[in-house]
Amino acid sequence: MSNMEGEETPHRQIPDETLQKKHQSMIDRLAARRQTRLETRKPDSPDSSSTSAFLSRFNDFKNSITTQIESAADPSCITDISSSISDLEKLVAENSYCLPSYEIRASLKTISDLRQNLDTLTAHIVPKKKFSFKNKPVKKETHIINQDTECNTVSLPELKKTSLPVRDSPGFRDKQSQVLVKNFKGSEIGEFTISGLDSCEVKLVGSVNALFINQLKNCKVYVGPVMGSILIEEVENCLLVLASHQIRIHFAKRSDFYLRVRSRPIIEDSNEVRFAPYCLKYKGIEADLEVAGLNEETGNWANVDDFKWLRAVQSPNWSVLPEEERIGTVDLVDLECGNGTI
């Protein structure tokens, strides 16, 4: 019996050893699979650290701008401060992918406050210069726009109707029923303004750092890539084709926007606005888009944030423009520009 028992023992151990090996092999596979999953998730894990790094850079940048505003005593500082604020806007746009929505809103509010502080500073240290400066852009526009034979005067009360601060940047202002053209290639214009237009068509080729649009009615606006941000206020019955890192729209009515934008477009106090993808074409636009960091379509044109609509359901103030109602590709092949400077 002992021999039989002695012979049976190995038969029981062999399957046990085999099972143990299989079990260990399965554990090893599961461990390896778990490690692979962990490694796969690593790129997504730095969200909090990325946000912290952004906030650190943002606050340092903000504090620097605040110091510049508080210590500024010379009008020559205004341009540099404005450029710094535009760079801060670009920083927010470039990091919007990894930021929570509340951080984006807080950052934009801070930037808006800085702009307001700068406008207050400008009015304080250069009050007289603003009056004498107004006629200069109008005279220069007559050189750019060949069909312009009259020099329109700028009415200060009309400019103050909007809450958008009046800017002294080059631009098209107070025109009606005209085709307005500007080529930025080879120029050093940082900011450009389109303001007070009625029934005009605007064509801008090349890139600028920032674009400001306000008080437009029944206009069509075609714009090449903007490296920083676009701020739009008070447009009605307009069609706008725009590309930028960040686009904010205030008080817009019954207008269509064809956009390419790195961050989510923002609307506020707007209604009956519709969105579609960017559709502009001109010679060299691919290179301009690449330099501006806008060569890839993100699809954010359809991801609109309505800051006045806090419910979970879709905002009734904006919609995606139906394909059958969209315009085709706009080709500025016949564009004639660069006949003067602004």
Overview of this structure, please?
The chain has 342 residues and is α/β, with parallel strands linked by helices. 40% of the residues lie in helices and 27% in strands. The protein is built from eight helices and 13 strands. Strands 1, 2, 3, 4, 5, 6, 7, 8, 9, 11 and 12 form an eleven-stranded parallel β-sheet that branches. It has a two-stranded parallel sheet with strand order 10-13. α2 runs antiparallel to α3. The radius of gyration is 29 Å and the shape is globular. Mean pLDDT is 76; it is low at 1-14, 40-46, 128-166 and 337-342.
Average predicted confidence as pLDDT:
76
In terms of DSSP E residues, the strand content is 25-35%
Structural class, please? alpha/beta
The percent range for helix content is 25-40%
Rg, nearest Å: 29 Å
Which stretches are low in confidence, meaning pLDDT under 50 for 5 or more residues running?
1-14, 40-46, 128-166, 337-342
List keywords for this structure.
8 helices; disordered C terminus; 342 residues; disordered N terminus; eleven-stranded parallel β-sheet; alpha/beta
Can you describe this structure in just a few lines?
By secondary structure, this protein is an alpha/beta fold. 40% of the residues lie in helices and 27% in strands. Helix 2 (47-71) packs parallel to helix 4 and helix 3 runs antiparallel to helix 4.
Show the helix and strand layout:
Blueprint: H1 2-41, H2 47-71, H3 77-94, H4 101-125, H5 127-133, H6 135-144, H7 156-159, E1 171-176, E2 179-183, E3 191-198, E4 201-205, E5 208-217, E6 220-236, E7 239-261, E8 266-268, E9 271-277, E10 280-281, H8 285-291, E11 305-306, E12 318-320, E13 330-331
Parallel strand pairs: 1-3, 2-4, 3-5, 4-6, 5-6, 6-7, 7-8, 7-9, 8-11, 9-12, 10-13
